[in-house]
Amino acid sequence: MADNSNRITEAWIDPRSGFCESNSTFYSKRSPIPLPPNESLDIATFISSRPHLGKTAFIDAATGRRLTFSDVWEAVDSLSSSLSSMGVRKGHVILILSPNSVLFPIVCLSVMSLGAVVTTTNPLNTKAEIAKQIADSKPFLAFTIPQLLPKLVDSDVRIILIGDDSGQKIGNGFGVKILATLEELIRRSPSETRIKDRVTQNDTATLLYSSGTTGASKGVLSSHRNLVAMVQTIISRFKIDGPDEIVFICTVPMFHIYGLVAFATGLLAAGATVVVLPKFEMSDLLSAISKYRVTDFPLVPPILVGMMNNADEIKSKYDLRSLRFVLSGGAPLSKEVIEGFVEKFPEVTILQGYGLTESAAIGASTDSLEESRKYGTAGLLSPNMEAKIVDPDSSEALPVNRTGELWLRGPTIMKGYFNNPEATAATLDPNGWLRTGDLCYIDEDGFIFVVDRLKELIKYKGYQVPPAELEALLLTHPEIEDAAVIPFPDREAGQYPMAYVVRKAGSRLSENAVMDFVAKEVAPYKRIRRVAFIASVPKNASGKILRKDLISMATSRL
């Protein structure tokens, strides 16, 4: 773990950029955050030790149900006791397949308090995609809602149902093994004789799957220490020390690192109230902001652009005067978007953030409008974080204003990839540096700018789509000889997958047929939405697809 505690006093670190010439390392300009020294500490215990002042922790925007902080911790205590009696032990993997819910954090915290490991999956994923994750992670049991039971058929995973008892009949109809309902387990009195293994900060807390350029999803192992450091960073960024209540609204998915770390753990520790939307609908979102006097709104760029473009209509229908901050993540915002939003919503401050699943969503941030007006920036390095800019060809560490791959090191960096030592070695160097796959530079003021991606993930409405996965699928089509998938720019979605396809001789395969073929096999956000046919896919001497050439070809007529 990197220790930056004394580095501010070192005269050889440029106070303006944070760059140290002697070791070619950039250090965070944010004040360092102390981390708990006690080794025997799990993330749930750490969060529960934080003062909460009796405020409301979660509000279900759909039903109006409220959970106080006391409600949350009583439920966590009961559920962890019930899980222990069902045989859940340290190291067991527990799958959560669910949309956003006020109960989602309770499941996560209960599981992690026992030293068991949380793994989540996207409810939009297909049965086959979920089956792959189950085969890899081998969950001891799963939490899901009645509507998603069909996606667990044939998985042989025992299930705890999030929902009422009527779901039991649905489960029996599918032949799945339902052990109990979540509400039933929460209502039980905690057992004083429960078995609770000793959990250390170095033990694994989460196993979240991050799409890679090789096509196969990789399980990211984050420790309790990683999550504690993440929570401390969030607490320092959103201090709740005044009389005014801070109310966040949760629209980003809790199964994703962005939603999981912020809404299931970080904001709970910070003492904020979180309004939870089960699914995203713009009208429901705006109504909830108005009804519950939301102050802080984490979002992805397409939602911010949508608010900007429809500001007059929105302000005529909804009272958004409580809103103070929007926090954008997923991609840097342009000058046009920032200034357009500020013009329409002058009372709202835009903040931005940069992080990866592999860094527990921590990396860099802008913490004021002034910082966000460094147009295109991902922000300053987060507290306790170090960075290098490394030339991808020579491996030389570069100074200020030079472009190379961003490497990060700090207490939130993952332990590694689950059962994948090759991928771990390719991503984490022996000194703890995480190769992010992003081409960046850091300017003379210490701000990070993302120029391009070495990793070739497509960002569709905040979701990550690996091109190689779609290419492998396309190559299974009997009429396709070769294929390449690229990101195509889109104002609403950010990017969407476009396929270049080489048809086999004699084939009359159509664009719609290609899109329909893919749509049947993948989650909606991964669907191919544009197809072009070419004679051959351009590749370099080693056979790597020249995506930049294809991207230039696709966008030349825009």
Automatic annotation (TrEMBL):
Chain ranges of the AMP-binding enzyme C-terminal domain: 469-544
GO cellular component: peroxisome
Species assigned in the record: Nepenthes gracilis (Slender pitcher plant)
InterPro entries named in the record: AMP-bd_C, AMP-bd_C_sf, AMP-binding_CS, AMP-dep_synth/lig_dom, ANL_N_sf
Residue spans crossing the bilayer: 255-277
Keywords, sorted A to Z: ATP-binding, Ligase, Membrane, Nucleotide-binding, Transmembrane, Transmembrane helix
Location of the AMP-dependent synthetase/ligase domain: 53-418
Classification lineage: Eukaryota, Viridiplantae, Streptophyta, Embryophyta, Tracheophyta
Record protein name field: 4-coumarate--CoA ligase
Similarity comment: Belongs to the ATP-dependent AMP-binding enzyme family.
SUPFAM superfamilies the UniProt entry points to: Acetyl-CoA synthetase-like (SSF56801)
PANTHER family per UniProt: LONG-CHAIN-FATTY-ACID--COA LIGASE, PEROXISOMAL OPC-8:0-COA LIGASE 1
Gene Ontology terms for molecular function: ATP binding; CoA-ligase activity
Pfam families named in the record: AMP-binding (PF00501), AMP-binding_C (PF13193)
